[in-house]
Amino acid sequence: MPGLRWDALLGGVETEGSLAFWMYRLDSWGWLLFETANMAALATLMGAGAALLMAFPAARNLGAGRVVNPLARRLLEAMRTVPEIVYALIFVWAFGVGALAGILAIAVHTAGACGKLFAESIENTGLGAWDGVRSAGGSWAQACRFAVLPQVAPSLLSYALLRFEINLRSASVIGFVGAGGIGEELYKVIAFNYYEEISAILLLIILAVFAIDLLSERLRHRVIGAMR
């Protein structure tokens, strides 16, 4: 815990016991946290996009085929089984230290995790519109696009936004292996036993997750309201 004192709480950066003294590197940490949030957002976008493409063949009720369906499901299982930090180690070795390795690591795991949730949402959807499109001569892909996707879009958006919150925390952790973001800074202060700095960084991560949760909720309600 930081050594804060009531009599010095609002003092300057040079005053021990003040908030400014505790958060003396707020500008640097804030930029690293912004970088981490960008990593999480880009990885979520990439992973959710890949999950959306694989969810339709992975859904059992759409009849993708005896070969395609189990193949898609096994691929999603493999992608989400391996932890992000293991993917990060692999990509750091392949592409070097930096944000690219972290983005790819989170994106691959996100594709596997969201793919399962997306496929289950599709399986729980009524197929009346699907049958209508198919009976009118529409292809399998057209039925997925125009009959199923509009029904499940709110659920898919909700899952993707939830995954974005999870990915922010994941992006903070995989920085420990050199994958960029505020995780690298957190690893350094832990290694040097700068305990007050650890608590400051953790507080900033928690506040960032709170902010993203509130923004995600508003965005989800707005999009769902527009679809209705």
CATH superfamily: MetI-like
The biggest beta sheet reads: none
Structural class given helices, strands, pairing?
Answer: mainly alpha
Helicity level:
over 70%
Number-wise, the strands total 0
**Low-confidence blocks of residues:** none
At the fold tier of CATH, the topology name is MetI-like fold
CATH architecture descriptor: Orthogonal Bundle
List the helices and strands in order.
HHHHHHHHH
- The CATH class name reads Mainly Alpha
Number of domains: 1
Distance between the termini: 48 Å
State mean pLDDT (0 to 100 scale).
Answer: 83
How many helical elements?
A: 9
Tell me the radius of gyration: 22 Å
**Large-scale geometry:** elongated
**Beta-strand residue percentage:** under 5%
Keywords:
elongated, 228 residues, 0% strand, mainly alpha, MetI-like fold
What does the model show?
The protein has helices at residues 19-22, 26-58, 68-81, 84-95, 99-123, 128-135, 140-174, 182-191, 195-227. 76% of the residues lie in helices and 0% in strands. The chain has 228 residues and is mainly α. The protein is built from 9 helices and no strands. α2 runs parallel beside α5 (99-123), α2 runs antiparallel to α7 (140-174) and α2 packs across α9. The model has no long low-confidence stretch (mean pLDDT 83). It has a single domain, classed as MetI-like fold (Orthogonal Bundle), CATH 1.10.3720.10.
